[in-house]
Structure formats: structure tokens, C-alpha cells
């Protein structure tokens, strides 16, 4: 029974129904109905002492009936129902009521505990930041909702299929596309997760003919419903040969054609996905023409699979200009959810969000401290220092290499994280050591923020919040970071 019906000060229940409503009560269990009739008869019996009978009534009897309603569904449970009106109670009946009384007490305690937990939901924190009590967006920088997104731990199974549209522009071997996307993508997840996750991808090397042209509008991948139509047709045509209950992700590679220029992710909650027999497809990626870009092969698979795991886009949906570098002004190539450059990696914040880093790998500096950071690509050690700014933002520092593991000098990367901004709004923003200098070679490879690393001296001096982050010295390939606040 909802707590809204309880008057906790009197431990009584305010009446919410009339006799007429009781008489019309319909339940799937005749036993429950007979108990309500018994209780109503006892409440109205002439032998009951005079006084206000219906303004309040004691909490025990209705909750005993609720307990009986729960127990009545259990196999073998029986209970004698007395006639309407007061009845003599045997010792056996007293013992039965005693047991129900304890069960009732447990129900009340559980309800109060749940209510208290709900009231304190706003006190939850994530890396020193307050989560609040409001419903966050699905894609944000707070904790991942694993009721919607699969957990990237252990073996994550996927199936890769190939869809050919009538307006396909060329013939391509499916083996070549598979090799372009999968092997390096699998190696990336194995390395980035420190061995915590393995991406296992099965494949069907044949082209599945689609019923309509890619430009017909029936398969528009930027609309949830038409994107679902695309996925549903492929699933329907392969249901006889694929057991979709074995897979958490469905990858569909489209032929090269005008109607599928990019590679979006499609997600659904339970009950709204694509039915495949007894299975339901909830997470899918449809790969388009962009995977044929020289720099966008396995990186596209890693980026879109990041969405499947709940990571937001870090490039800008609304850049100030149409220049390509302005789309990537927030994080550049420093995270795969931004620009997908060769050698790019997930930020330490995202690795913690995905569950690949633990509390032992992250220092939350709520007061002055000093910490040794090790490079993000090493298995052991502290990977990030998080310095909260108020309740919803934080500075984060980690040790990175611009060109990838062991390929260039390691430095300290600093960025600011916000829990108030969603996907495409800049929830993470890099704080560069130096601005871009227009180097044509570096801009060709990295687009922007290629001078972001700090190698010595102050990293952040925030007088407003009284925070100073500084590189105190080198430690092998890592750095000692000093936080003063």
C-alpha cells in the first residue's frame, strides 16, 4: 500500500474507499475478496463499541490482509476464512496472526527505508560531484544507467551483418570491410579497458538485399522510427540464421550509397526494440560511408560502441562557425567521442565511467594534496586527479601522449567536466597549455588542441574558487601533481 495512505503519527490509515467501492472490488483471487468482506463485516457489526468507525481504522488489519494477499499466491498456502462478524479465534489462528504481524512490521520498515533512500537520492555523489535528485539525460558525464546501456565488462558479444541497397555505388567484399572495422577495434577495447572487456564479434559474410533505395526516406538513420525500420528489415531477413538472443550489439554495415553518409547508433528501452523471435534487439550501429575515410575505420566502431555503453558526444552540435575545427573545439582528438584521430584514446573520466578504473585509480582532491600520476596506458597507478568546483563541475588532470602510447613525449592533460551539460553541448572541455599556432601538418593530423599538454609549472590557477594545480616534478614517465585549495 502506498505510503501516501499512512498517517504515521497515529500509525493509522485514512479511509480511501466507500462500502460501495468495496462491494464492487474485483480481484484475481477469491480468497482476498472474502477477507475484505470479513473485515468490512467486523467493522460494521452491531457488537462493535460505538464511536467513529470509519474516520480512522487501525493499521494492522488492512496490512494483514495485504500480507495474506501476497501469501495466498504461494503454492500450498491455506487459511480458514471465518463467517462475517466477530468470530472466536483458536490458538492456531492466533499464531497465524502473530506471524502475519511480524511480516507486516517488516513491510512497514522496508517501505520507510525505501522512502528515506528516495529522499536522500540528492545526496549521491560521483567523483566528488553531487548528482542531485532530478532525472539526468541518458548521455551525460555522470554514472551510466545500466538498465538502458550494457555494462562493458567481461565478454560483450556482437553480430556484424552487411546490407546492400538497390542504389549501391560499387561492389565491395564484406571481408575487407570487416577487417577495416573489427580487429583493431577489438584490440583497442582490450587495451583501453586494461583487459576488463573483450569485444567478441561474429559475422555473416554475405550481402543482405534491402527492399528500397537508401534515399527513399524509409531508412533515414537520423530519425529513431525510420532507423528502426532499417534495422528491423535486416533482422527479419536474417532471423532464420542468427540467434539474436546471444548478442548484446548488432552491427550493420551498409553498402556505399548516397542515403547512408554516416554511422549512427540506435538504442531502445525494453518493449520498444526490434523483435527477433523471443529475443529483442535494443542496441545497434549502422555503418555508413564515413567508415571508408582513411582515418575512420576502427575508430568509428569504437566511437559508436562508446554510445552503446552510454558515452556522450564530445564534439559540438552547435559550433560558432562552420569551420571543421570549431566542431571539435571542446576536446579535439583527446577522446574518441570527439575527433577520431589515429592513436586517440578515452579520457580517464570516461574510463572510470565505464568501470575500467576504480576508486583506487582516481584521487578526488577536496583539500590540498600531492599525487603521482602514471600514464593512462599503463595498467597500475593513479590515472587522474579530480578537483571538484562546487557541486556540478570539476577540474581533471591525467598523463597522456599526443601521438598514442610510447610514440611521443608524455605530458599532463587538463580538462573541465560538467554534469549540467549533455551530449554535444561540451560536457568536457580541454584546457590547453598553449593555443593552436596554425601548424599545417599538426592541423592536418589533429585538427585542433594539439598543444594541450603541460610539461612543467602551473596548470590551473583559479582565484575565484581558490584552486591551484601545479606540476611538482617528473616521476619516470609520470608526473607529481600538487593541488592547493
Q: Give the beta-strand count.
A: 21
CATH architect. name of the largest domain = 3-Layer(aba) Sandwich
Strand content: 15-25%
Report the C-alpha radius of gyration, rounded. Answer: 30 Å
So how many helices? 10
User: Pairing-aware structural class of the strands and helices?
Assistant: alpha+beta
Mean pLDDT: 82
Main CATH class of the largest domain: Alpha Beta
* CATH fold annotation of the largest domain: Collagenase (Catalytic Domain)
The main pleated sheet reads as:
5 strands, mixed
Helix content: 25-40%
How would you characterize the overall build of this protein?
The two termini are 50 Å apart. A 5-stranded mixed β-sheet has the order 7-6-8-12-9, sandwiched between helices. Helix 5 packs across helix 7. Mean pLDDT is 82; it is low at 1-34, 46-60, 71-90 and 115-122. Strand 16 (393-401) and strand 17 form a beta hairpin. It folds into 3 domains: 3-122, no CATH class; 145-309, 3-Layer(aba) Sandwich (Collagenase (Catalytic Domain)), CATH 3.40.390; 324-485, no CATH class. Helix content is 25%, strand content 23%. With 485 residues, it is α+β, with helices and mostly antiparallel strands. The chain has helices spanning 19-23, 30-44, 60-71, 91-119, 174-192, 224-238, 298-308, 324-327, 348-353, 440-446, and strands at residues 6-7, 12-13, 57-58, 125-126, 129-130, 154-164, 197-209, 249-254, 265-267, 274-276, 279-281, 283-287, 362-364, 369-373, 384-389, 393-401, 410-418, 428-430, 457-462, 467-475, 478-484. The chain contains 10 helices and 21 strands.
Amino acid at each position: 500500500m502506498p505510503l501516501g495512505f499512512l498517517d504515521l503519527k497515529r500509525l493509522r490509515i485514512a479511509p480511501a474507499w466507500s462500502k460501495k467501492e468495496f462491494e464492487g472490488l474485483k480481484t484475481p483471487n477469491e480468497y482476498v475478496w472474502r477477507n475484505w468482506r470479513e473485515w468490512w463485516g467486523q467493522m460494521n457489526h452491531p457488537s462493535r463499541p460505538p464511536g467513529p468507525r470509519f474516520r480512522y481504522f487501525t493499521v494492522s488489519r488492512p496490512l494483514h490482509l495485504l500480507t495474506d494477499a501476497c501469501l495466498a499466491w504461494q503454492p500450498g498456502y491455506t487459511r480458514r476464512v471465518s463467517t462475517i462478524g466477530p468470530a472466536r479465534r483458536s490458538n492456531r489462528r492466533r499464531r497465524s496472526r502473530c506471524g502475519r504481524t511480524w511480516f507486516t512490521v517488516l513491510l512497514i520498515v522496508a517501505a520507510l527505508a525505501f522512502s528515506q533512500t528516495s529522499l536522500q537520492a540528492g545526496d549521491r555523489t560521483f567523483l566528488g560531484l553531487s548528482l542531485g535528485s532530478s532525472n539526468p539525460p541518458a548521455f551525460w558525464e555522470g554514472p551510466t544507467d545500466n538498465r538502458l546501456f550494457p555494462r562493458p565488462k567481461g565478454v560483450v558479444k556482437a553480430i556484424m551483418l552487411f546490407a546492400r541497397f538497390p542504389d549501391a555505388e560499387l561492389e565491395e567484399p564484406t571481408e575487407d570491410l570487416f577487417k577495416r572495422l573489427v580487429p583493431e577495434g577489438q584490440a583497442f577495447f582490450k587495451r583501453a579497458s586494461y583487459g576488463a572487456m573483450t569485444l567478441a564479434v561474429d559475422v555473416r559474410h554475405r550481402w543482405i538485399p534491402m527492399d528500397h533505395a537508401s534515399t527513399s526516406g524509409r531508412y533515414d538513420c537520423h530519425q529513431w522510427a525510420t532507423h528502426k525500420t532499417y534495422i528491423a528489415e535486416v533482422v527479419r531477413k536474417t532471423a532464420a540464421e542468427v540467434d539474436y538472443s546471444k548478442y548484446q550489439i548488432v552491427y550493420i554495415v551498409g553498402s556505399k550509397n548516397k542515403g547512408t553518409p554516416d554511422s549512427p547508433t540506435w538504442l531502445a528501452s525494453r518493449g520498444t526494440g526490434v523483435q527477433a523471435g523471443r529475443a529483442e534487439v535494443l542496441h545497434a550501429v549502422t555503418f555508413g560511408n564515413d567508415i571508408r575515410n582513411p582515418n575512420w575505420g576502427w575508430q568509428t566502431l569504437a566511437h559508436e560502441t562508446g554510445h552503446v555503453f552510454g558515452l556522450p558526444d564530445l564534439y559540438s552540435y552547435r559550433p560558432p562557425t562552420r569551420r571543421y575545427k570549431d566542431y571539435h573545439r571542446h576536446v579535439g582528438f583527446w577522446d574518441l567521442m570527439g575527433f577520431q584521430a589515429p592513436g586517440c584514446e578515452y579520457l580517464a573520466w570516461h574510463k572510470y565511467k565505464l568501470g575500467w578504473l576504480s576508486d583506487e585509480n582516481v584521487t578526488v582532491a577536496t583539500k590540498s594534496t600531492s599525487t603521482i600520476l602514471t600514464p593512462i596506458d599503463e595498467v597500475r597507478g593513479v590515472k587522474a586527479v579530480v578537483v571538484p568546483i562546487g557541486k556540478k563541475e570539476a577540474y581533471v588532470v591525467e598523463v597522456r601522449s599526443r601521438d598514442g602510447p610510447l610514440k611521443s613525449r608524455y605530458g599532463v592533460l587538463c580538462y573541465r567536466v560538467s554534469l549540467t551539460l549533455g551530449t554535444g553541448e561540451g560536457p568536457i572541455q580541454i584546457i590547453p597549455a598553449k593555443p593552436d599556432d596554425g601548424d599545417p601538418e599538426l592541423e592536418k593530423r589533429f585538427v585542433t588542441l594539439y598543444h594541450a599538454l603541460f610539461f612543467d609549472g602551473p596548470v590551473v590557477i583559479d582565484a575565484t574558487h581558490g584552486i591551484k594545480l601545479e606540476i611538482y616534478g617528473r616521476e619516470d614517465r609520470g608526473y607529481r601533481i600538487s593541488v592547493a585549495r
